[in-house]
Each structure stands twice: as C-alpha cells, then as structure tokens.
Write a structure and sequence with these properties.
- There is one protein chain.
- Helix content is 74%, strand content 0%.
- It has a single domain, classed as Four Helix Bundle (Hemerythrin (Met), subunit A), CATH 1.20.120.1770.
- It has seven helices and no strands.
- α1 packs antiparallel against α2.
- The longest helix has 38 residues.
- Bound molecules: protoporphyrin IX containing FE.
- Protoporphyrin IX containing FE binds next to α2, α3, α4 and α5.
Length: 253
C-alpha cells in the first residue's frame, strides 16, 4: 500500500455529509422561523437582543463546530497542513460567533437586572463554551505551532479527539436545555396544547439531535477516516527510522 494513491472517497460518506448539511441548514432555518414568526425577530439593541443568543449559539456551537469536525473526512486529498488550518479556522469562527451570542445574553440580563448564571442551561452552557475555547487553544498550540514535538502531539491527540466529540455532544444538549427553557418562559400555559410555536421549537430540537447523530456517525466510522497521503507516510517512515529504528504505525498528527 506504501506509495499508492489515496483511496477514493468511501461509498456512503458523501451522502452522510450531504445529509448533515441539509439538517444543519434546516435547523438554522427552523430557528430563524421560530424567532422571526413567534419571537419578533432578532436585533442587537432592545428587547429582541435576547433572540440573538440562540441564533448565534446554534450557528457557532452547533453548525460551524459540526462542520469543523467534518473537515478531515471531507478534504481527504489535500495536504494535512491545509486541512488542519481549515479545521482550526472553522472552530475559531464558531467561537467568535458563539462569543457574540454569550455577550448578547449577558448584556440583556445585566440591563434587565436578571441574575446571571442561575440555570442548569447557563452552567452547562458556560462549561461548554469555556472548554471549547480551551480545546481550541490547546489544539492550536499542539498541532499548529512548530514548537510542539511529534511525541507530545501523539500523546495529546486522543484527548483532543475525545473532547472534540464530547464538547460537540454537550453543545447540542445545552441547546436542547435552552430551547425548553425559552418555551417555558414564553408559552408555559399553552405548551401542553401543541401550539404551533411549541411544535416548531420541538422540531428544531429534533433537527439538532439528528444533526448530532449524523455528524457523530461520520466521525466514528473508522473506515471513513482520512488515510495518510503517500508523502506523509514516507515522511513518517523516515522520521521513525531515524529516531527509533522501527517502522511507522501509519497515522500522522
Ligand atoms: C451551546 C450553546 C449555548 C450556550 C453555550 C449557551 C450559554 C448560555 C449562558 C452562559 C447563559 C447565561 C447568561 C447569563 O447568566 O447572563 C445563557 C442564557 C440563556 N440561554 Fe443559552 N446557550 C446556548 C444555547 C442556547 C439556545 C439554543 C437557546 C434557545 C433556543 C438558549 C436560550 C437561553 C435563554 C432563554 C437564556 C436566559 C436564561 C438563563 O440564563 O438560563 N441558549 N445561555
């Protein structure tokens, strides 16, 4: 297999990636419809600023985070360095959009004198956001800065992979808590009567779960992982032979 051209895109991968994008766009559309039709729309100043929070969090912590996770499965033939950079850039964009969403809700709470950080949603949400920021900083430090040694990268990689998937799942759970909380604030008395707003917001929740499941499936299919390119294998072989006098196991960081 050494020196062979990388395998073609595995059967089924494109369909799953397309399904994930359709679900991601559908969940953003459902959120827009909910906030636009039933919550008066989105604005930065005034009472509608609170609505900027869910929109930014869904776009940043779910859609963009999910797409950043899929980068290695989608771009299979590009140089590892370019793929890593795109992965980091998409996560960075997700964090920036999420930061706008967090600032929006803190400003609204501050202006209205509502206590901060009292709900389960806010505790888990803050944990998800801070850990996601930490994960991004550590990822950039270990994998993009040339100063990190390859043995350090190898040791850190399983932690990065586990926490990447775990934080994505936590972000979706936090959004589900946020949706339920917002429904209870706004339609507590009519929710149980299957009012259209409740049905639409529940549909958004189901789309979130579906997006998470499809992205999770793509990420956990071992045979859909990006195979190392021929030149990466050769480099890894040279390096291992030079440093340890043994042959490489295949993967590259
Ligand atoms: C991963 C995504 C999310 C994160 C990290 C997050 C984080 C937070 C945080 C930290 C607060 C507390 C702000 C404060 O105490 O001043 C908050 C409040 C709030 N969030 Fe989210 N949120 C997320 C998604 C959502 C979504 C999708 C919705 C609704 C559809 C939502 C609805 C709310 C509401 C109504 C509040 C005000 C009540 C409260 O403090 O619990 N959030 N969020």
């Amino acid at each position: 297999m050494d020196g062979a051209p990388p395998a073609a895109r595995p059967a089924g991968l494109s369909a799953y990636v397309a399904a994930s994008q359709a679900l991601g766009l559908a969940l953003l559309g459902a959120a827009g419809a909910w906030l636009g039709r039933y919550r008066g729309g989105v604005a930065w100043h005034g009472p509608l600023q609170l609505n900027a929070h869910p929109l930014c969090m869904l776009l940043g912590m779910v859609f963009l985070q999910g797409d950043a996770l899929l980068v290695y499965r989608v771009f299979r033939r590009e140089a590892k360095r370019s793929t890593k950079t795109l992965h980091a850039l998409l996560h960075g964009l997700a964090l920036a959009v999420a930061l706008v969403g967090v600032v929006a809700v803190f400003e609204v709470h501050g202006a209205k004198g509502i206590p901060h950080m009292y709900s389960l949603h806010s505790w888990c949400g803050m944990a998800a956001f801070v850990l996601y920021l930490l994960q991004w900083l550590l990822g950039c430090g270990f994998f993009l800065l040339p100063s990190a040694s390859s043995s350090l990268r190898r040791q850190y990689k399983p932690h990065h992979v586990f926490f990447g998937v775990a934080l994505f799942a936590l972000s979706i759970a936090v959004c589900l808590l946020g949706i339920t909380e917002m429904l209870l604030f706004n339609i507590r008395d009519s929710y149980s009567r299957f009012v259209p707003e409740g049905v639409l917001a529940n549909t958004l929740g189901v789309l979130l779960v579906a997006f998470g499941l499809v992205v999770g499936y793509v990420l956990t299919r071992d045979d859909w992982k990006r195979p190392p390119l021929a030149e990466e294998l050769a480099l890894s072989m040279d390096f291992k032979t030079l440093t340890e006098g043994e042959s490489p196991s295949g993967g590259s960081q």
